[in-house]
Amino acid sequence: xxxxxxxxxxxxxxxxxxxxxxxxxxxxxxxxxxxxxxxxxxxxxxxxxxxxxxxxxxxxxxxxxxxxxxxxxxxxxxxxxxxxxxxxxxxxxxxxxxxxxxxxxxxxxxxxxxxxxxxxxxxxxxxxxxxxxxxxxxxxxxxxxxxxxxxxxxxxxxxxx
Amino acid sequence: xxxxxxxxxxxxxxxxxxxxxxxxxxxxxxxxxxxxxxxxxxxxxxxxxxxxxxxxxxxxxxxxxxxxxxxxxxxxxxxxxxxxxxxxxxxxxxxxxxxxxxxxxxxxxxxxxxxxxxxxxxxxxxxxxx
Lengths: 161, 130
Known about the structure:
The structure holds two protein chains of two kinds. Chain A is of the alpha+beta class. Chain A has helices spanning 52-82, 87-93, 100-106, 113-124, 127-135, 145-149; strands at residues 3-4, 12-16, 22-25, 28-32, 39-42, 49-51. Chain A has one domain (8-160). Helix content of chain A is 44%, strand content 14%. In chain A, helix 1 runs parallel beside helix 4. Chain A is elongated and about 70 Å long. Chain B is of the alpha+beta class. Helix content of chain B is 32%, strand content 33%. Chain B contains four helices and seven strands; from the N terminus they run αβααββαββββ. In chain B, the strands form two sheets. In chain B, strands 1-5-4-3-2 form a five-stranded mixed sheet, covered by helices on one side. Chain B has a two-stranded antiparallel ribbon with strand order 6-7. Chain B is globular and about 35 Å long. The termini of chain B are far apart. The relative contact order of chain B is 0.23. Chain A binds chain B through residues 3-10, 23-27, 29, 47-52, 54-56, 58-59, 62, and chain B through 18-25, 28-29, 32-33, 36-39, 41-42, 63-67, 97, 99, 101, 106, 108, 110. Strand 6 (49-51) of chain A pairs antiparallel with strand 1 (20-23) of chain B.
C-alpha cells in the first residue's frame, strides 16, 4: 500500500521504474538510472527516497553505467586529440605507457576518472598540450623534450574558443 | 535546553541498525560527489545520526505534511571526518524524523548537507564553513 509523503503530505510514495531518470554518481551529475530499477518516489513533490537496500542496488547498477560513461568520454577526447597530436606524443605527456590510449580505445583498459578529466580538458583547449609539456619541467635547466613534439600540429586559436 | 521531538535514544538505535533513509535532492545530491557510492552515503548518514548529542539540537519544525522534523547542526569529530575524508567539510545541517514502517524504526533524513546559514544549537552557534 502506498504511503503518504512525509515531506509534502500531498502525494503518495510509490515504487517508480521508468526510463529517463538521472542521478548523480561520483563526479557524473546526471547518470541515467536503469529503467527497470524501482525507486520510491512521491507522486506530488517528486522526491526520491533511498534506503540502504536500494543504495546497494544503485551502486551495483550505476557502477557499470559510470564506467561506460568514462570510456565514452575518454574515447571522444582521444579521437579529437588524435587529429591534432600523435598519440605517441600524447601518452608521455599524460604519464601513460606507450600504447595505453590504443588499449583504452579498444576497451582493453578502463580509464580512471582523473585521466578522463585530463583528456577532456586537453581536448577542449589543445593549446594546453604545449603548456603541459612546460609544466612538467622540474628545474630551470631541466629538459622537457616532449613539449616541442607535443605541440599540436593544428593548434587552435584561443580566441576561437 | 531545547529537547528534540524524537528522543535521541530512538535515533541512535535506528542508526546502529543502519535503518536510515535519505532523500535524493537534499541529501544524496550533496553527498555522492564527496563520498562516491550510495551505500557509503547511507553509512555516513547512519554514523552521523549515531553521533548526535543534545548539544547538536537546534529546533523542531513541521513540514507541510504536518510531520515533525528535528533540526541539528553537527561538527564532525576527528574520527568521523577522517574516516570519510571530510576534514575540510566538518559542519553539517541535518533535518530528520523517526518513522516506523511496522518492521521497526528508521531515521529518515529530509536534509543532510553543509549549512547554508548559522545554526543556533543548544551547544552554541554552528557557522557555515567558508
